[in-house]
Amino acid sequence: MKCEEKFLFFWLHPNIMTKILVVDDDCSICELYKEILGSFEVVSACSGREGLELYRKLMPDLVIVDINMPDISGVEVAKEIFKLNPEAVVIVVTAYYQEFESKMLRLGAKEVLGKPFNLKHFRECVAKYLNKGS
After folding, report:
1. Predicted pLDDT of residue 39
2. pTM reported for the whole predicted model
3. Nearest-5° angle of CA 38, CA 33, CA 37?
4. What is the average pLDDT score of the chain?
5. Which of 9, 27, 47 is nearest to 133 (CA)?
6. What is the pLDDT averaged over residues 71-96?
7. Dihedral, 8, 105, 98, 18 alpha carbons, nearest 10
8. CA 104, CA 4: separation in Å to the nearest integer?
9. For 90, which DSSP code?
């Protein structure tokens, strides 16, 4: 099954609730992710600290994190998440793509996407990691 088909499968089967945590200091961006990923259980955090608290509480299936945040950077958030769960699925979305891509991939991020991102490619990335069994 292609990545886009996996995304559509989950999109059309909302009874398969997948938890996604979005961590971005721009709350309007968090709301945008909720709209894009509407059929999933999407929880958002508008700070790195809040994101880590929610990660510990919810243990989501996938985390989408921004790099540039005022309290705790996305790099530090990802490091802490990987300490808690080395198998965590983290997708990094950043305006500083070239600066952080290799660092975040070495750290364990599954994908690093530049802002603004292509919506189709973003959905494919999400779908790729949601259906681990396929």
Report:
1. 78
2. 0.84
3. 25
4. 87
5. 9
6. 96
7. 30
8. 24
9. E
